[in-house]
Amino acid sequence: MKKILNEPFAYVDEMLDGLCAAHPEYYRKLGETGRAIARAAKPTPGKVGIVSGGGSGHLPVFTGYVGKGLLDACAIGDVFSSPSADQMAEAIRAADAGGGVLLLFGNYGGDVMNFEMAAEMVDMEDIRTATVLVADDVASAGPGERHRRRGVAGLVYAYKLAGAKAEAMASLDEVAAVARKAVDSCRSIGVALTPCTVPAAGRPTFEIGAGEMEFGMGIHGEPGVRRGPIRPADEIAEEMVTVLTKDMPLQPGDRVSVLVNSLGATPPEELYIVYRYVSRRLAAMGVSTVMPLVGRYATSMEMAGMSLTICRLDDELEALLKAPCDCAFWRV
Amino acid sequence: MKKILNEPFAYVDEMLDGLCAAHPEYYRKLGETGRAIARAAKPTPGKVGIVSGGGSGHLPVFTGYVGKGLLDACAIGDVFSSPSADQMAEAIRAADAGGGVLLLFGNYGGDVMNFEMAAEMVDMEDIRTATVLVADDVASAGPGERHRRRGVAGLVYAYKLAGAKAEAMASLDEVAAVARKAVDSCRSIGVALTPCTVPAAGRPTFEIGAGEMEFGMGIHGEPGVRRGPIRPADEIAEEMVTVLTKDMPLQPGDRVSVLVNSLGATPPEELYIVYRYVSRRLAAMGVSTVMPLVGRYATSMEMAGMSLTICRLDDELEALLKAPCDCAFWRV
Amino acid sequence: MPEGLTAATLQGGLRLICLQMEASAAELNELDGALGDGDLGITMVRGCRTIEAEIDTYPDDVGMVLLKCAQAFTRTSGSTFGTLLATGLMSAAKATKGRSEVPWRELPDLLGQALDAMTKRGKAQLGDKTVLDAVEAVRAAASQSGDPGAMLQGSRAGVAQVMDRMRNLPARQGRARIFGDKSVGRDDPGMVVLQRIVEALSG
Amino acid sequence: MPEGLTAATLQGGLRLICLQMEASAAELNELDGALGDGDLGITMVRGCRTIEAEIDTYPDDVGMVLLKCAQAFTRTSGSTFGTLLATGLMSAAKATKGRSEVPWRELPDLLGQALDAMTKRGKAQLGDKTVLDAVEAVRAAASQSGDPGAMLQGSRAGVAQVMDRMRNLPARQGRARIFGDKSVGRDDPGMVVLQRIVEALSG
Ligand SMILES: Nc1ncnc2c1ncn2[C@@H]1O[C@H](COP(=O)(O)OP(=O)(O)O)[C@@H](O)[C@H]1O
Ligand SMILES: Nc1ncnc2c1ncn2[C@@H]1O[C@H](COP(=O)(O)OP(=O)(O)O)[C@@H](O)[C@H]1O
Ligand SMILES: [Mg+2]
Ligand SMILES: [Mg+2]
Ligand SMILES: [Mg+2]
Ligand SMILES: [Mg+2]
User: Fold this and answer.
1) Of B57, B247, C164, D97, whose Cβ has the fewest other Cβ atoms within 10 Å?
2) Distance (Å, rounded) from C-alpha A63 to C-alpha A44?
3) Which residues on neighbouring strands pair with residue B327, listed in sequence order?
4) A53: enclosing H helix or E strand
5) Which residues make Cβ contacts (< 8 Å) with residue A177, sequence separation at least 6?
6) What DSSP state is assigned to residue B312?
């Protein structure tokens, strides 16, 4: 994997410098650590803040989604490493406008620990927080252990839906309830074709044969459910839909949004080929697709592969999904 | 290069099926060939139409940019191959709303020939056309032979600026004049780190060593100006700015927009590292940067590498750049 | 035997060419694959199949038949060769529109006009090692005689000659130009198409 | 010699630990690199350097010194080990806040509370082959005697023992779990940190 960078250890800080320089209308770097980013605009008094965070290397996740109708602030770690509890606390303080702050992030050990610690820190400063973990990757644990699943592209729906709810001046409990509903309604599964390289490590996250793919692999190279020869797009899509709808059965008449997401190198052309199959397949099940998302929404730098997320909608979630949002990477 | 696809020969048609299925609010497939895409909305009577086209494999270029404030219709060829003159003529007919049609596309032999032929075809049907070629790649010919240069990411500015002018109900001559001014104001240079694979060919477009990059290489693998070891991001950025501003000198007080564009696999993290340097470098020259674009605007599937485009602005171009536009890949 | 090219003769020739292109497709793809995108055989087969599918409905008008042939290529191909071929055919179609027979002696002029149109379209020159050089060889041979058999014999020799002469030059046009010196020692694929067409017609 | 742990004794110990971590950084990075992201040495060095930079300004309050140490890690690291260490230190800080001396016999309880906090934070269990098992070994050794020297001797032996016992088990927590069987036969890097700390303190 070839990269355009300077000093590997400066990767994240230089990236954030560039991000904030390119989009000062969206992003504001917070003083102390330089690893917390808030919306450029001051928070609306009383609005519930939404904070996320995690390791770098997943743009637009996490930082990119700071913006109206989405996140209020974000803590950013090194590539694939949790930010520190202090950085999270700083993001939480920036997001607090008196209405409390929802901590909404992916279910990874380090992030969970640090957000817990950060919540304790700001609790002493009388900032109320609620925590919702995104755990949508069906490959990472069985249906009986959903709380152990990793968070992947489902983050995008969680941000969007909770973000829209917060923008409507709902209370912390209400925003957290929508976030929980979003998490309960999302299922994701990925397929990896090539690894990526963490700049500071300088070697690929895993090895895989030239003609192979790994079904269910995690975005940091966590082992998946099966490795085998690369199969045709339609077969991959079919297996993905089957796995997701087995975990979350859909009935005729159901409405869903789907996210066909590239892990990085896989181009949109291929995503559209997959979307074509998925949308027909869902239609054949009597399920209608609303506001599909196709593109690079949650990535692992230059990793090749894609993921499919199905988000089941009810009237409330559909309205929240279609509500406006605005960041440098996504506008509705 | 690993790909998620079905039959390689179905790549483009399946991609277009998916694109139109995912975004029916933006894209409408025209009947006869299935290789011409128009805006979903009927054209405004009297508005000048803008048509582009070229080979597939460059999303969002070309088809993705069909949308309000951008293109009206597009003809799409096989991967890296010109569409046929008939397909172009079909796109031109769809874009015509009585005000004439601007043919705005990159300077590649096949596309030029076929658009010429298409223009002759629709001329017999009394559709007035004007042609502006985008030729922004400084690596592809010297300053004395600008008309021989290839068109690369500068297409994006040409679409945006001419598209905004057309939306303001300007005449064909006026829209063509803005397009020409856009082309005259844009310079691009790219660096390639890895090749990509044309699905039907099944082999990489070129070979390159594990630690090498090629400065000035074209988006289809056309030879560049120099091959050598991969250098730090800042040095690459420095050389790019130097080459571009040598070709189009900038004065203190000048305003530009810049596009830091990924060729596909190169992630936005790296683009922001480069943007960080470019924006500082221009600021040090007394040049101010307006509405920078950082992302995947003109790609070559899974190719790794990036390009830098500088677009010099005057009051008119700046206003047109900031005018609204809306397609599935870009909204202003 | 008629004094010139009739729509019927033309259709007979087209059938022979179509057969030949099916047979030569793999060879042409391979030649073009070495120096380009490998679609030259596909381009020819797609155009020819469209012609074959419609040929029975072609009118008794040389110009209209040529126009239909041109359209068979503009509809099915955006590749350089298809577009140039269509350009040449279109030029000849305009000059012969409404005529059911075209005297053989007009052939060199028709070819010359087609060559001009193709040159204008492709912005290449004679000597650039493209199909243009082969077309010029056919035109030159055709101007040596008023008899179609002799024209074809001369064309065969003329095309072979110009190919020999150019083989060791580098390509200067199209995708092959990118390969630069790799093209030295190789025949230009577009010239090979013309060679196969002449061969097919001369039986 | 005082009857317990004073802020001054603690500072002396911290200086020894900081020195040791500089010396062990490469070893720790390498151990963590084989089964994780290779940042364990970096985590320790960053935290320790922050401590060293501030240590002269630390107040005469055991709890406050421990809190400062905890903050040195929450500020500089988001890695598991840094966060767990901070969690343990924070727990001890709360229990000793405002005191300039803490009797040695309270140490086992403080370590037990720290262990509880770390267990709750990391959701791992004793026996999972993590730093927790080493902390437990230190706690057990400290409860065998009221004398700091004997405590350290016991800890050295106890940590070595538990490491021997766990070496051939697979990792069950953190990134190392992903490597599964590759972790069999290898010491847990987090336990090695505790081993180096005990060694540094026992001189
Ligand atoms: N500019 C040009 N003018 C005339 N002939 C050309 C030109 N470029 C290419 N050719 C001819 O076309 C042939 C290649 O045709 P084709 O495979 O259709 O090109 P491509 O697939 O690259 O568009 C070449 O062998 C050459 O004879
Ligand atoms: N859940 C856990 N509970 C307790 N200790 C853990 C846990 N996960 C990892 N550890 C310890 O942390 C060490 C790794 O720390 P560190 O390198 O900071 O992790 P990472 O970089 O993966 O976040 C392991 O060797 C182990 O001792
Ligand atoms: Mg070709
Ligand atoms: Mg071609
Ligand atoms: Mg580590
Ligand atoms: Mg770490």
Assistant:
1) C164
2) 20
3) B330
4) strand A49-56
5) none
6) E
DSSP notation for A114-130: HHHHHHHHHHTTT--EE
Give dist(CA A117, CA B142) in Å, integer: 60
Find which of A33, A114, A121 to mutate to test the D interface (most D CBs within 10 Å of its CB): A114
DSSP helix/strand/coil, D79: coil
Q: What is the pLDDT of residues A44-103, one digit of tens each?
A: 999 999 999 999 999 999 999 999 999 999 999 999 999 999 999 999 999 999 999 999
pTM listed for this prediction:
0.95
CA distances from A36 to A88, A89, C110 (A): 7, 9, 74
The residue type of D183 is S
* CA B294/CA A64 separation, integer angstroms: 12
The residue among A231, A257, A269 with the most chain B CBs within 10 A of its CB, best to mutate, is A269
Which residue's CA is the closest to the ligand 1 atom numbered 24? C190
- Helix, strand, coil percentages for chain C (3-state, nearest 5): 75, 5, 25
**Amino acid at site C199:** E
* Cβ C135 under 6 angstroms from ligand 1: no
Could you identify the residue written with the tokens 């980013």? A37
What's residue B33's pLDDT?
80
Note the pLDDT tens digit of each residue in B64-75.
Answer: 999 999 999 999
- ipTM of the shown complex: 0.94
Determine, for residues C39 and B87 on separate chains, whether the beta-carbon distance falls below 8 Å. Answer: no
DSSP string, B68-134: BTSBSEEEEEEETSPPPHHHHHHHHHHH-SSS-EEEEEE--HHHHHHHHHHHHHHHTTT--EEEEEE
The beta strand positions in A91-238, using DSSP E, are 101-106, 129-134, 186-192, 212-215, 226-229
Tell me how long chain C is: 203
